[in-house]
Amino acid sequence: MNETPRPMRRNEIRAMNETLILQAAEKVFAEAGFGGATMQLIADLAGLPKANLHYYFATKEELYRRVVQNIFEIWLHAADSMDGAETPAEGIGAYIDAKMDISRRHPEGSKVWASEVMHGAPVIQDYLETTLRDWTAGRAALIQRWIDEGRMAPVDPQHLLYMLWATTQHYADFSHQIETLNGGKPLSETQWNAAKTNVKQIILRGIGVL
Amino acid sequence: MNETPRPMRRNEIRAMNETLILQAAEKVFAEAGFGGATMQLIADLAGLPKANLHYYFATKEELYRRVVQNIFEIWLHAADSMDGAETPAEGIGAYIDAKMDISRRHPEGSKVWASEVMHGAPVIQDYLETTLRDWTAGRAALIQRWIDEGRMAPVDPQHLLYMLWATTQHYADFSHQIETLNGGKPLSETQWNAAKTNVKQIILRGIGVL
DNA sequence: TCTCTTCCTGACCGTATGGTCAGATTGCAG
DNA sequence: CTGCAATCTGACCATACGGTCAGGAAGAGA
């Protein structure tokens, strides 16, 4: 019956509890939406009293904002996979891989993001208008360059990007529907690979690089 | 300053108010999610007192259920466009057209559906397991037949369907993001056509029928 | 050890929300 | 015209939720 013996440092306590809360919050926000989520539910899942949540995050909005920002960071990092590619097939293929992996390992985050955007992006509108817009413009330019050099079929870069986002994120956002249509079982390792292969195959052939 | 003179029939009253409420509800549920939506907001948008809503729909859940069911019906009808096609290109092309049109004219419905599925389909789980599963199996079989006959590239039918859903619904579910990246303006007629063309082009070429 | 700051939490509060209900109004059948 | 059932609604209620706070526990620095 021995307790954890080592006393915790201030830093550790703060870091640990913030992480605990953010993880619980991400899950609850994903499952219930902002309006449906309650601080009590998040607290229970994090194993902390509700009042403690308000010690670390003043309001529900602030907690939500932090969750959404975290997700955004992750996605931006994944985007790097598209850069420094020798060929369009490599670049876009790697991007699809990266986004499919995120959908698999981070489905809650994707759902929170989708929910946020669907509800009019009340808290991350400025991100959309600055960071995301810049990122999108940059990649669209890259794709346009590839097209101009005749290395892929002439498609609208913007709409190609939408297609990449839509297709990959669908596996996270609609995971429940996919699971149901899969006999109630989550996709297996093999099925995930099949999904990834199919997406890449159709899109890469679709833009004329296969 | 003349009022509408004609007194309304019972049937008309009921039909009209139910429609009014359902339309308002669809919009509010789409914008705020189930948890964030309030009966008061729906009532205000419908121009009726809140108590009147509860006269036609006993509970918030019941109203929500009706909204979701309506959407499901619309989608099922759209699916007919895939049948009776001479070629894969025709069938899938028509299905893309139909779903893109729904995304454009019925974006709220798509959002409500997405939200419902993301939250674990609490009210339409049985539809997923029966109607949708059957529909999906049927179309997957059709696609497989096309593949077996060598009329299109050998792709996984199930994942192709997911791709069609994802790509087309993205234009409804993420309309806010798309609008923001479009300089804050909704897609124009021309841009919608470009979107449709691009989606069809990439996917149809992707499955080897272009 | 003593003091200060951070961390923690049970109890509490104001408000908003889903839902109820009694009673008024109005179309409708006979 | 009359009685009945459908429609309507302001006022009300119980509950759940986000947020507060006073006061206790526990590391940190001297």
Chain-wise SSE layout:
The structure is a homodimer of 210-residue chains.
Chain A: H1 10-36, H2 39-46, H3 50-56, H4 60-78, H5 88-105, H6 107-118, H7 125-148, H8 157-173, H9 175-181, H10 189-206
Helix pairs in contact in A: 1-2, 1-4, 1-6, 4-6, 5-8, 5-10, 6-8
Chain A binds a DNA duplex (30 and 30 nucleotides) through residues 7-10, 13-14, 17, 38-40, 48-52, 54-55, 58-60.
State the gist of this model.
Chains A, B: It comes from Gemmobacter caeni. Chains A, B: Keywords: DNA-binding. The structure is a homodimer of 210-residue chains. Chain A has 210 residues and is mainly α.
Features:
75% helix; DNA-binding; disordered N terminus; 2 domains; homodimer; Tetracycline Repressor, domain 2; Arc Repressor Mutant, subunit A; mainly alpha; 210 residues
What does this 3D model show about the protein?
2 copies of one chain form a homodimer. Chain A has 210 residues and is mostly helical. Chain A has 2 domains: 1-58, Arc Repressor Mutant, subunit A, CATH 1.10.10.60; 67-206, Tetracycline Repressor, domain 2 (Orthogonal Bundle). Helix content of chain A is 75%, strand content 0%. The first copy, chain A, is built from 10 helices and no strands. Chain A has helices at 10-36, 39-46, 50-56, 60-78, 88-105, 107-118, 125-148, 157-173, 175-181, 189-206. In chain A, helix 1 packs across helix 2 (39-46), helix 1 (10-36) crosses helix 6 and helix 6 (107-118) crosses helix 8 (157-173). Chain A is globular. The first copy, chain A, starts with 9 loop residues before the first helix and ends with a helix. In chain A, 39% of the residues are buried. Chains A and B meet through helix 1, helix 6, helix 7, helix 8 and helix 9 of A and helix 1, helix 6, helix 7, helix 8 and helix 9 of B. Chain A binds a DNA duplex (30 and 30 nucleotides) through helix 1 and helix 3.
